[in-house]
């Protein structure tokens, strides 16, 4: 059932006009370019899809656009990220109404809680909205690591369809994949760490959610297919090339975290002609021309420009 | 100008019915009891006011009710807590429309950023909505500490009217109060740590935002007035008594953080007959009868029951 | 019994020659100046006493010198700080042999452990060496907070004579002081936070261990005596003055943590003529003349120069 | 030059008698078993080699024994782990005197510092003692991550011969390996994460330092050789088997961190007849018979018993 979400599922970067409005045309360019390259799905309103920067109205625009542009060619997973259960369920209902194929939710955040509340959170979302649900493990943002045993239990119980792992904990990821296998593989496990997808495949990942897949979708698709064929040398070589390309995030100076990472993705998409503007959402600084030139230089070295 | 927000400003605990709906009557009981006890203001939709658990519709209910019940007797500060700027500004506009006297915003959270983005965040909120704005320093929830120099700068520039400090950093708090004094006292500085308000007054705080003030507002009012009169022995004795009372939060077992802390406040308000129900918002467990009995025992020892 | 360790007990800064050797004369100047000012005890080989920078031989030099210079005028507490139990006990035996009046030990650090191991650690030290033992609560260095219930239990059992609290958690400190009182005051509780000693006295502290006491011992002695007499206004005014003086630690630029903090103390002691050199231990950079001049400026404003 | 440290270099678990003394015979059993299995080197006095639990005298015993037992068959790397530079250099001199082939040092810990001090720390150790020096990146213990650019710079400058990475950051590890390659491969980079060695090999690691290599050295040797031959399926299958075996660390209950991890290793070595006793150093609890039986069960399932 959950097999439809395997493979390369990039978290789609949101396009804004220079004035900060949603840029449908650029967004469509990016999605079409990725679908043409052979990606297996699209994840909108992820962390790098500026979900937490977007008002509810903006979130609706993004979901509707993605569903319309994807047009059934690949499934659309939608991030329903918000602080606590009641708010998250509201987003889930909207996403379903607008045509999402699956939902992606993090642990609750801001208020301090334990694993019991997290488990109840996922169960309540599942009860409220009948769509495949992915747990998004991203402690760097929500400051809680999802417990491995809980994830398996929720998979076995049919609450979770999968896990998107951005936990930065490759040891725990290995154990999660092994536990999932023993339990009959209830969960589709995707890694969010685009720099070490080869290692995740070694551990048994069912696919990846690479932010860098917005820039070089064909590379991740080639890597996935090589993995399916057991051609590990190609898996590794593609990864080395892609990891080199990831260095675009080191180009911006004097800015950290989101502004540097997603900023570099937007800068690259502008340099590639996919995005009209690399405008960032407030309060994040938009990268300047000099920084975009530096990013373009890395793209040239990688043969993408 | 900002003097109107000095003194005791409890963060108002939100009342729910046993079914999880907003309980206006209980909410009114609590506010009226606090206003009668002489508090100087009310802070609704703070962390303990379940802001992050409340949908936008629920937030509206709470603000409207608070403004209506307060009826101008004391100012109403409203928490506009959300992840990033655009979402926060939406809440700010609603709060103003519904009659808030001041706004309280945290640093952006979830996405990783630096102090430059935080400063821009506060400036944009101030530009968008013309109401006194308090910065809420609560690293345990947002995982960033507000920079002292930035706060003073925003105070001097008229962006911030004050700071609600729940940073847990009493050393930094002392320096903040001293810096504020030197800058001409642009900021009204309130401490959120109800167990050590006496120390905060020693450091020069302009008031407090004690969650425990929902349970014993008269105590915090007596303490504030003693501080105004330089009667430090009374300040200290009230604090020792209140800190003892705070041990209600140690009664719940097998539950942590929000569920134990706000859970104990709700349990106490039920035991006192102020709240009809001690129902907690999902996904947090509601304290049971045994736990409420344990809390009532502490209240009896403190002479409140 | 433990009353002998109440009051002002500065952590003694270690004096080095310009070549990095132990400077007995400067060290004696500093101790004599503090004893003359009326301090109640001396704590050598604390965090600011460069205990973790000192070889075992150097530690011996420092203890011997302190005991000799103090000459029974005030008790000498000795830090026996090291990673795990067996190493700590070796330091404890040396300290006793060289004449220490009490020992100060942190939780074990480097290897990851829980509270059970920490409790056993303190019990084993106490069994091994018959001297009053203080627990040093300093999570910023050892990355574990000492559990309050454990501390009280160890006090009641006669394992611990006291606690030196540098935990930065004033809420927990208040509860610790209250619990200690209820248990019959087995522990002498000293705060290490020199900027908020007034708040700690409000909470019931039995004294302080102020690094800044090396620079202005008379101020902390006046404050302590005012506290003993219930003169809270003087307690507060001295604190405001001392907190201002503490800003010497903000003078150094481009250096953080230990190098800025203890660096500023050494710079001030050189500016005051107490230390011959402000040399820091490797690998920490020694402050330069310009930085010492900046520190001297703060001292002048405070009337100490 | 540094090629001699490539391959499988297990961190040698220290054997104690039931009374807590060093157990030379058991220690020799373990080393001989690993050398016979074909490991490429031995790392004594690492984190799992109880370096921070060992007195200086005990450290000498361990180094001397390891050098004597290895008898030149494989190189012996020695951990010189202590808080700050002067203390670390003393250990370095002892290690050299006793015949170590290389040294392994962490960043300084306990006192708070920045990257400049860390870099100076490594340079001073290298100046003081002429042996190949490895930087040990273990933020979970020392609470600082070693900067990638600094490591490369120290490699190029001839200060560092290599890096033992236990940082838990596989993304940074990938970039480090790439940077090292570009710089002419000055550093020998070893991973300490025994559960994901296959991923580390994908990233370009020069070998591994697996604690679990004490239990199943032959598995890691087979995996290394398969990697050398480009046989990735074998690399992966061995890893899956070894990761299953690692679950011995989940057997102990009610004990965390070191006591569970190294405790399980010692329990397994006792079950295998390699160690006479599974005694742990104080203050860590020694696993009981029931726990050893649980570990033996896992060993049986893995075919090792």
UniProtKB/TrEMBL annotation, chains A, B, C, D:
InterPro entries: Aldolase_TIM (IPR013785), DapA-like (IPR002220), Schiff_base-form_aldolases_AS (IPR020625). Belongs to the DapA family. Keywords: Lyase, Schiff base. GO terms for molecular function: 4-hydroxy-tetrahydrodipicolinate synthase activity. SUPFAM superfamilies: Aldolase. GO terms for biological process: small molecule metabolic process. It holds the Pfam family DHDPS. Pyruvate binds at residue 209. The keyword tRNA-binding does not apply. The keyword Lyase applies. This is Dihydrodipicolinate synthetase family. The active site is at 136 (proton donor/acceptor), 164 (schiff-base intermediate with substrate). It comes from the Bacteria. It comes from Gleimia coleocanis DSM 15436.
């Amino acid at each position: 059932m959950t097999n439809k979400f395997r493979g390369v599922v990039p978290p789609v970067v949101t396009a804004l006009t220079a004035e900060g409005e949603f840029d449908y045309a650029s967004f469509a360019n990016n999605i079409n370019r990725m679908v043409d390259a052979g990606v297996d799905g699209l994840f909108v309103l992820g962390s790098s899809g500026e979900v937490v920067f977007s008002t509810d109205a903006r979130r609706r625009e993004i979901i509707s656009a993605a569903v319309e542009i994807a047009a059934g060619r690949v499934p659309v997973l939608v991030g329903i990220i918000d602080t606590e259960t009641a708010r998250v369920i509201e987003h889930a209902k909207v996403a379903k109404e607008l045509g999402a194929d699956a939902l992606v939710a993090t642990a609750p955040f801001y208020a301090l809680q334990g694993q019991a509340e997290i488990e109840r959170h996922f169960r309540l979302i599942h009860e409220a909205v009948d769509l495949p649900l992915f747990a998004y493990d991203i402690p760097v943002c929500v400051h809680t690591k999802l417990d491995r045993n809980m994830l398996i239990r929720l998979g076995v119980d049919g609450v979770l369809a999968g896990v998107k792992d951005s936990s930065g904990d490759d040891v725990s990821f290995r154990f999660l994949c092994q536990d999932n296998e023993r339990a009959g593989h209830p969960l589709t496990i995707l890694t969010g760490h685009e720099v070490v997808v080869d290692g995740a495949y070694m551990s048994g990942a069912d696919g990846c959610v690479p932010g860098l897949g917005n820039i070089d979708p064909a590379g991740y698709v080639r890597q996935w297919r090589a993995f399916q064929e057991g051609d590990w040398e190609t898996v590794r070589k593609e990864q080395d090339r892609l990891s080199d390309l990831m260095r675009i995030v080191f180009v911006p100076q004097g800015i950290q975290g989101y502004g540097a990472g997603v900023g570099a993705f937007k800068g690259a998409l502008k340099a590639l002609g996919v995005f009209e503007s690399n405008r960032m959402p407030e309060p994040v600084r938009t990268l300047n021309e000099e920084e975009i030139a530096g990013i373009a230089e890395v793209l040239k070295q990688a043969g993408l420009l």
